[in-house]
Amino acid sequence: MRSIMGDYEETELRLGLPGAGGGGNEGETSRNNSGKRGFSETVDLKLNLNSNNSDGNQVEDMKQKNLIQASTDSAKPPSKAQVVGWPPVRSFRKNVLAVQKNTTATDDKSGGSSTAFVKVSVDGAPYLRKVDLKMYQSYQQLYDALSKMFSSFTIGNCGSQGLKDFMNESKLIDLLNGSDCVPTYEDKDGDWMLVGDVPWEMFVDACKRLRIMKGSEAIGLAPRTIERCKNRC
Amino acid sequence: MAYSFPEEVLEYVFAFLSSDKDRNAVSLVCKSWYEIERWCRRRIFIGNCYAVSPQIVIRRFPEVSAVKIKGKPHFADFNLVPEGWGAYLYPWISAMARSYPWLEEIKLKRMVVTDESLELISKSFKNFKVLVLSSCEGFTTDGLASIAANCRNLRELDLKESEVEDLSGHWLSHFPDNFTSLVSLNMSCLGSEVSFSALERLVSRCPNLKTLRLNRAVPVEKLPSLLRRAPQLVEFGTGAYSAEIRTDIFSNLVEAFSGCKHLKSLSGFWDVVPAYLPAMYNVCSRITSLNLSYATVQSPDLVELISQCPNLKCLWVLDYIEDAGLKALSSYCKDLQELRVFPSDPYGAEPNVSLTEQGLVTVSAGCPKLQSVLYFCRQMSNAALIAIARNRPNLIRFRLCIIEPQAPDYLTLEPLDTGFGAIVEHCKQLRRLSLSGLLTDRVFEYIGTHAEKLEMLSIAFAGDSDLGLHYVLSGCESLRKLEIRDCPFGDKALLANAAKLETMRSLWMSSCSVSYGACKLLGQKMPRLNVEVIDERGPPDSRPETCPVEKLYVYRTVAGPRVDKPDFVWTMDEDAALRLS
């Protein structure tokens, strides 16, 4: 079983440049120009298990560094993966607009801002992510998005079957919803709560950060907790 | 027998030469002209702070009163240059403090300026007059306090779009009570509130104040007080332009604006409440420059305002203006020379406003003097670009950003090669071009062939192969700055056109396919270039030679490899270069 970091390198996020599959080698890469190739087609979180082409990996390592965040949601159109420095808007301009958008949003809506970013930590993942809870309308949508976001990390076992399971989204959701995962969140009072008890809107309002507990820590929790989680997911 | 004018006469004649190009030409005529010229050059422009060293500059030009220095490459604006890369001001100041005690002007762009540097400036140059910090960083408001306190003859303090660590607004109060020489103050990038009474008193006692750009923290109710004390203002930037709607605030504003008979430029307008825009209508007929790029106001309100400005030459606005607003602009503002349309929601997946390529086409048709364009939009077509090119062959700057990378012509789904090709073909005076959308190598063939006056080219997510880069480097006679990101350009074109790089100021390539081996080769081949590999993954030696580098920055220099590199920057063939120098 390879280490988590080993797998991470293997399963790069693909920022498909024209003909970038070969990557890394000098010389021409030709490209098929016909038809629209929207950026969203080339940037998806499909795991591309490259054959042992170390150069390709280097190129792709760099490319995935350029991606900041992506989330998908079935209700809204998918927001793009944010590439560093694109579109070329200077940071002071971005900040001004972000602040103003929130203030105009609060003018329109009764209280609350238009975004609700919270940190998400998944046990075993090398770094945290952030999601905007207001992008989703239900717990299931949130789980779908989280499973996509964290799909590159080993969840559960990691044999060849486990790797194949990466490619299979429904398996991912099972893994996330499975018995060895416990989604928890920190609420406004600082208490750690089990996700799913309250109506979605109330959860969005209360949630300050998310933590997906896995493996041995989850096992340590009361069996009834795990049961409830399994039944709900 | 050699007749020659006495030196003093030549010096007198040379004094009329202001352009660096002319002065450089003059200094090449003969040794004595070189000598005379170097002693009488007062203004120095250094386009790349690493192309030359302070010592070399001072040695050649001993009596300088104005210095303009640029540091980081342009893509630093979009966070592509890692923190700590360089462009430190301090070595320049410490050298100039010794050699140019009568230095009056320092203008900087994209440099790292510390409070220490600012303090040294304020104490070293007794007649210091002008400090312009454009897109700089590294200093706090304490540094500004030193400048305010010590520069008795200061005329201009312009912070443009710098990133200042804002400790407090107290710095403004450091201008002494007998300080009256201020002509221009731009503090719009600062966050903290300054003491309003200190600001009022400063404005009152500086009768030559022509430019005042406030920061967001100054509320609209307080503007009349300032305007009344400075009716001679030519350029004014408001703070947050919002308040509860009260008739007294409104009428005070109207009166105050009316008193400013010389106002030509307006900016600021954060948090705009549209109801307060009409307060400016009295001055609009004289306005030539309007920066509404923070004004989140809808198109009808924008149109109302713009329709009052028939003399408008320069407009910066958000895409809230929409196609309809641009149509109005094209009919009311026939003198328009520069248009910049910024995106209100650059990361949104769907358009939030009705702004398309049509708006730009309309302006290009209706504004005969339009020469400078920066336009963010979400769709473009070859037909539109061709129309723009035909309408406006007098374009000098054309920067188009189609928000989705590699977006094709939305009507035909083809690449936008022919559209941009038309731009470079028709606009023979084009000096600056930024490309976007789906582009093949063909567009670079057009550019290489036709863009004879092009000095700066920005490319992103474009091209198919090295051929694209080759077309540009082997053509474009006037090219000075080339910046490329995320394109499949690699070793062949770069190495085949190595000599071209010495005719340019700089080349930036990031997320392309240039291998470490090629960078080394380039560094060896071209000793007068600094070939900097910027790679945060660790030493390039630890990876195969064929491995592409993350970022490459190549620039010509007479100063050799730099000595202030951080640990993620390597200069290729540094050893050989050091041996040569």
TrEMBL record, chain A:
Keywords: Auxin signaling pathway, Nucleus, Repressor, Transcription, Transcription regulation. Gene3D superfamilies: Phosphatidylinositol 3-kinase Catalytic Subunit, Chain A, domain 1. One of its GO terms (biological process) is auxin-activated signaling pathway. The keyword Metal-binding does not apply. Residues 1-40 are annotated as: Disordered. Its main location: nucleus. InterPro entries: AUX/IAA_dom, AUX_IAA, PB1-like. GO terms for cellular component: nucleus. It is found in: Nucleus. Residues 115-215 form the PB1 domain. Aux/IAA proteins are short-lived transcriptional factors that function as repressors of early auxin response genes at low auxin concentrations. Belongs to the Aux/IAA family. Homodimers and heterodimers. This is Auxin-responsive protein. The lineage of its organism: Eukaryota, Viridiplantae, Streptophyta, Embryophyta, Tracheophyta.
Automatic annotation (TrEMBL), chain B:
Residues 5-46 form the F-box domain. SUPFAM superfamilies: F-box domain (SSF81383), RNI-like (SSF52047). One of its GO terms (cellular component) is nucleus. One of its GO terms (biological process) is pollen maturation. Pathway: Protein modification; protein ubiquitination. The keyword Coiled coil does not apply. CDD domains: F-box_AtTIR1-like. GO terms for molecular function: auxin binding. It comes from the Eukaryota. The keyword Membrane does not apply. This is Protein TRANSPORT INHIBITOR RESPONSE 1. It comes from Abeliophyllum distichum.
